[in-house]
Amino acid sequence: MGLLPKAKGFSLVELSIVIIVTGLITAGVVTGASIIKQEKLRSIILEYNLYDTAFNNFNATFKATPGDMPNAWDYWGSDCAASASLCNGNGNFNIPHDYYVVTETYELIKAWKHLSLAGFIEGEYIIQHHINVAAGVNIPKTRYFNGGWYMNRYIWWANNIDSAIGRKHRFNVGTKRTNFLYHAPIFKPNDAYNIDLKIDDGSPYAGIVVSHGGYQIPGGVNPNCVSGSGSTATYKITYDIAAACNMMMEATLFRH
């Protein structure tokens, strides 16, 4: 019986080639993931501009504010909602943050229905209570990690920043908070900072773009988004473990 041929191993050159090719593939995967993430971050800016323009165009066309429009039923009837009271706003040029108000008007949900019916945004949205709200069903869904957009006049966290900044109408983007709207964290601080810097000034508590830790259950505001207070506050850009921030972008329609 003859001896089996001796197995030939890889040469150093061959091993080097394998290592290089593996490294290139890994680098390509990492680069591809980074490109996808950057594209999703850019989509937040594009969506903000789209919705801000839609609000302005709606106001120019109907002389009313989406969600707050007092005669929306006259235009769209049952296509809007089951009743005029559920379709119409109260016409006071204010979209309140009214979770706890007994006379709930749902204007921050109605806004998207009005914009859709008027043809200024895509999608079909259902007006209902905030507790059951879902992105893509009642409010627009972000391309960035399945977040959601809504619009209202923030007043309840104004103590964190200058009241003149905190009490403006803003487009809010975040992830779903249990039994509430989409104001739980969606961005890592460095991502929030980069979005803020591209649109505004890179400061979380100043300018037309502001940010904070987002409300979540349990635990209240996430402490890993912002350091400091007022105009000197900064994003905690070295925190890279998980999403810690949501963001709010001022609506030009309501600027004075």
Task: Describe the protein's architecture and organization.
Helices cover 34% and strands 11% of the residues. The protein is α+β, with helices and mostly antiparallel strands. The protein has a 4-stranded antiparallel β-sheet with strand order 1-2-8-3. The chain has a two-stranded antiparallel sheet with strand order 4-5. Strands 6-7 form a two-stranded antiparallel sheet. A hairpin with a 3-residue loop joins strand 4 and strand 5 (220-221). Helix 1 crosses helix 6.
Question: Descriptors for this entry?
Answer:
single chain; 256 residues; alpha+beta; two-stranded antiparallel ribbon; 6 helices; 34% helix; 11% strand
Task: Give the structure's gist in a few sentences.
The chain is of the alpha+beta class. The chain has helices at residues 12-62, 72-76, 84-87, 107-117, 163-166, 189-199, and strands spanning 148-153, 169-174, 209-212, 215-216, 220-221, 226-227, 234-235, 246-250. The strands form 3 sheets. A 4-stranded antiparallel sheet has the order 1-2-8-3. Strands 4-5 form a two-stranded antiparallel ribbon. A two-stranded antiparallel sheet has the order 6-7.
Mean pLDDT: 82
Major beta-sheet overview: 4 strands, antiparallel
**What would you call the shape?**
globular
Percent helix, as a range, is 25-40%
Q: Provide the low-confidence segments as ranges.
A: none
Number of helices: 6
Query: In angstroms, what is the radius of gyration?
Result: 24 Å
Strand content: 5-15%
Number of separate structural domains: 1
- Sketch the topology as an H/E string, one letter per element: HHHHEHEHEEEEEE
- Helical/strand content category: alpha+beta
Give the terminus-to-terminus CA distance. 97 Å
**Beta-strand segment tally:** 8
Q: For the largest beta sheet, what order do the strands appear in spatially?
A: 1-2-8-3
